[in-house]
Amino acid sequence: ARDNAIRNQVPCEFVTLPELTPPPTLQVDLLLANILANPLRVLAPVLAAHTRPGGRLALSGILVPQAEDIMQRYAQWFDFEPPLQDEGWVCLSGRRHA
User: Fold this and answer.
1) How far apart are CA 75 and CA 14, in angstroms?
2) What angle do CA 15, 16, 22 make, to 5 degrees?
3) Which of 17, 26, 48, 69 is buried deepest, with most CB atoms within 10 A?
4) What angle do CA 17, 22, 12 make, to 5 degrees?
5) Predicted TM-score of the model (pTM)
6) What's the pLDDT score for residue 56?
7) In this predicted model, what pLDDT tens digit does every residue of 75-92 receive, in sequence order?
8) Strand pairing of 78-80 and 89-96?
């Protein structure tokens, strides 16, 4: 992802291990998380806090039966578009409430 961002001249900041805890003031325009449903449930308040109002969120690594639960968990912060499905997996994308 970092190489693609550089190649496409997209300014971005990546938070990866061991930098698991981003600075508390970090707010991003786009947050992408490709992890399993349980960590997404636990991290919901953290991911929401780091997404700017009006910012975008993309969540993947979710099985079809888990999608509704994840959308409900994030609904207090995000409005979601219809889920995208492929071979039993779902990608959720939404916009942070203003």
Assistant:
1) 25
2) 40
3) 48
4) 85
5) 0.79
6) 97
7) 999 999 999 999 999 999
8) antiparallel
What DSSP line would sit under 14-69, residue for residue?
---TT--S--TT--EEEEEEES-HHHHHHHHHHHHHTEEEEEEEEEEEEEGGGHHH
In 3D space, the residue among 46, 35, 43 whose CA is nearest the CA of residue 89 turns out to be 35
Closest CA relative to residue 62, chosen from 42, 39, 46, 82: 39
Per-residue burial over 2-31, b = 16 or more CB atoms within 10 Å of its CB, e = otherwise? eeeeeeeeeeeeeeeeeeeebeeeeebeeb
pLDDT tens-place string over residues 29-42: 999 999 999 999 99
φ, ψ dihedrals at 87, nearest 5°: 50, 45
pLDDT band at 1; cut points 50, 70, 90: confident
